[in-house]
Amino acid sequence: MYRRVTQLMLQELQTNTYERKASFTPPKRFHKMAKKILMSVNMRCEKCRSAALKIGGQTTGVTFVGLEGKEKDQVVVIGEGIDAAGLVLRLRKKVGFADLISVTDVDTS
User: Fold this and answer.
1) Are 78 and 64 in contact (CB under 8 A)?
2) What pLDDT score was predicted for residue 18?
3) What is the reported pLDDT for 33?
4) DSSP of the chain, one letter per residue?
5) Could you report the per-residue pLDDT of 24-48, keeping only the tens digit for each?
6) So which domain of life are we looking at (predicted)?
7) Residue 72: CA atoms inside 13 Å, Cβ hemisphere, count?
8) Could you give the C-alpha distances from 109 to 7, 34, 41, 42, 105, in angstroms and in order?
C-alpha cells in the first residue's frame, strides 16, 4: 500500500499535476483598514525611546509613530496592514519588555 501511494505521488510530481493548496487570504477590504496599535514599552533611557520609534517607523504600512502616556512609555503606531504581534516581538527583542495594550480601527474619513 505504502509503495503504491509513493509511486502515485512521484508520478504526480513528474507530470507537474501536483497542485499546492492556496493559503487563506482575507478579503482586500480588511487590508485597507487603518489600525491604531497602542503598546507599553519599558524605556530606560533616551536611546531606548529612539530605538522604539525607529522600529515602529521601519514597519511597512505605518503612517504615524508617536509616544503617549505620562512618562512617554507607550508607543502608538497607526497604519494599514500592520502585524501587531510581530511589531511587539521586534520591540521585545531590540528594546526590552513590550506589551500590546490595544488595537483599534481608525476612521479615515
Assistant:
1) yes
2) 46
3) 79
4) -HHHHHHHHHHHHHTT---PPPPP---HHHHT-EEEEEEEE---SHHHHHHHHHHHHHSTTEEEEEEESTTS-EEEEEEES--HHHHHHHHHHHTS-EEEEEEEE----
5) 555 555 556 789 999 999 988 999 9
6) Eukaryota
7) 11
8) 58, 11, 30, 34, 12
Band of pLDDT at residue 17, cut at 50, 70 and 90? very low
pLDDT reported for residue 36: 95
Residue 107: its pLDDT value, please?
79
Rounded Cα gap, residues 51 and 40, in angstroms: 14
Q: Can you name the CATH fold of 24-105?
A: Alpha-Beta Plaits (3.30.70)
